[in-house]
Amino acid sequence: MKVLAVTDIHGNSKMVQELAELLESERPDIVLIAGDITHFSGAETARKILEPLLKLDAPVLAVHGNCDGRDVPGLLEELGIGLHDRRVEINGVGFIGIGGSNITPFNTVWELTEDEIMKILERNYRPGDVILSHVPPRDTKADRIHSGLHVGSKALREFIEGNQPPLVVTGHIHEARSVDRVGKTVIVNPGPLFRGYYAVIELDEATKKVENVELGEL
Fold first, then answer.
1. Whole-model pTM?
2. N or C terminus: fewer CB in 10 A for the chain?
3. Residue 209's domain spans which residues?
């Protein structure tokens, strides 16, 4: 399974259009969007931003980010692509989603306690599932900000250590574009699409193992 992963669009429709043109040749099996589709805007803005990707043949799954408007999760559900607090199976691979972020100092639109994050994971996860989470796990390359501090979710980190999902696709921390591992789990922060970044991940559908990750740039 070829997975095309993006995150942190922050309203940049030009980059989405460029990505859609790339995907016509890349032909991924699925597109994952790890949140912050808009920059504090609502559903109608999100709909326009997502439109080029929804015209493609590949299925799309998305979660909202902490900077998406209050009505964006409802739009994602309406479009049939919302994954927050849900599990969807495609080609024999399960996907579960966590939208929003852990608690930040900035009082953004969508923030969850660590307990809420853990309950979403426990409710939905089955062994071998891929996790799509706007917030990255704590103490990884994917959650380190410019100052060097790690600001990701402790609950997600704990869950990964205990359950070893094959793949976690995340975002939120723009400067933490990376591929990392926690045990057998591969963690991918593609970097923000508003800067032209994306990732292509090869996942073996039978073994549920990541075979390759490439960080790309438009």
1. 0.98
2. C
3. 2-217
